[in-house]
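Example record used in the benchmark description.
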Amino acid sequence: MPPASPNIPNHVAIIMDGNGRWAKQRGLPRIEGHRRGVETVRSTIDAARDLGIHYLTLYAFSAENWQRPAEEVSALMGLLEFFLRREARTLVKNHVRLQTIGRIEELPAGPLKELKSAMDATRHFTEWNLVLALNYGSRTELADAASAYAAAVAAGREKAGEASWSALSRYLYTAGIPDPDLLIRTSGETRLSNFLLMQCAYAEMIFSPVLWPDFTKAELAAAVAEYQHRERRFGLTSEQVQPRPTEHCPAINP
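Model output (structure tokens):
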């Protein structure tokens, strides 16, 4: 896979928030907001490719979302199944690999079947990557990783006295996926909601006031443009990370 363009985030993660409020503002049922949100997912995938973003992770359904009203959960699972069935062919056409993070085996049979089919059909692509966080929670992920790591130590595949982040991270759901460079949350909320807490340790964060159904390519481009003006130091000083005078980073015009 070719490297991302200079100063373009290689990996953008999005907490897609505001579907319910979008519907409420218009006097519509919550499910209408979710339906409109699905269309935004479709356009955002295309926008990410156009901007040169190689990894796009979308927080589609959290481990806590099962606690919502049963009719809403059922509708969300139906929309997921519909989206996967409809978009699988487009993902193949555009060479986008579909991956997932979360306890997907706990999903209902219908969407799980479509999910595995789409993942299988796109598994050989490498340049563009769509990651859906489904039945995902960062604390659950860490607990699962710790359990798997402990089992590896017991089996002699890991050494207990040599624990490190690089070793533990191989047991996360995101193993093999680069950490996000940019995290966006829509709807004006300013919390992470148990999403990629470890992976976003050094991510730049942007909290957009736009409700997810209204999030456009221009909104994504604006977030990338803001990201380009951030200085990422990773614990170093500003002087240590300043680019050489001859280096040039292209700008994104929203």
